[in-house]
Amino acid sequence: MPAAPATSDDHKKEGNELFAKGDFLRAAAAYTRGIKAAPDSHVLYSNRAQAFLRLHKVGKALEDADRCIALAPDFVKGYHRKASALHALGEPARSEEAAELLLGAIERGMEDRELVRLGVTVGGKAFAARLDAFRKAAAPVAPEEGDKPAAPPPPAKKAAPPSAAAKEAPPTAAAAAKGPTEQSLSEGLGEQLPWEAPPEDFAAGCLQPILKRFLAEGLVSLPAVVYLQPAPPAKGSREEPSLGQISIKPAFASPSTLAQCADFLQGKAAEARARSAVLFVRKALIEYPCVWKEKRKQEWPFDAKADGLFMQCESHNDRVVYFTQLTESKGGVCSVGETVQLDPATFALMPRLFAT
């Protein structure tokens, strides 16, 4: 008997496998075959849009995203794909359109952490402020005074939470931030000068003392910090550029604090004429964005509760993200586990710090 013809699900599965391997062109072709078999499949249009985005075929990605939304107006990924395509066009007006699209989807009840994260990336502080305003407006209205139930007895007094001002405080250049000093960075780089090292070597030089400190002091020593690779000294200058070191722990509390921190870091990187930047943050310190949640095993190969260190490295023309699993036993024995390179489009914690 002749083999049964492949179904749309067969083509989708093939496309997903090819996409996971990074073969985006063949993945798009597989999704196209699936669409021919099931022309009303919004999922296949969404998947092909994502493949086209990876191939930098933004116009085709936008067409597929529009078709996906038309077929399934409540499908969250359709809006994510369209906003990503609009932003990828590189025009401020299209990025504003992307932010409006995402905010509109959220206001219609499709709130999703990926939509929020993308909105902060494309819309910055303005998006975060509008989202906060929408959430406050949508919050349940308190009952009138006469309708209030009797007040319960006051709870035991607790330490006061951080003030709003403290939560929203911008990051600061922190000479005492946990991490490499000028001396330890020099040890990590060997004979290379910080401003001469390739960005990946600079990142590795910053990482070594952080891991060394972790092995000695445990998970509590892990930082939330950005290091800016200095530019070469001015011609004729005898003063060596210093290591830019900025504590960013407040950044990962909310979309608003993340956008504020990104703006601050972008300004600092431009001011310092930094060659590259490397971000380190312990996973347990991140309240937002929790990029590892609801990911497939091939995307996030760790247990959801696993702790460790995110490292995001970027220069003017490249960006990579890694996660290293770190463990500490009850007896205080620390060990460094597997390091995996992650897809920056999905797992980047901070918007781009350098204009591309």
From TrEMBL:
Keywords assigned: Repeat, TPR repeat
Gene Ontology molecular function terms on file: Hsp90 protein binding
SUPFAM superfamilies: TPR-like
Keyword ATP-binding assigned: no
Residue ranges, annotated region (Disordered): 139-194
Entry annotated with the keyword Methyltransferase: no
Coiled coil: none
Biased composition annotated in UniProt, kind: Low complexity: 157-182
Descriptive protein name: Uncharacterized protein
Organism: Emiliania huxleyi
Organism taxonomic ancestry: Eukaryota, Haptista, Haptophyta, Prymnesiophyceae, Isochrysidales
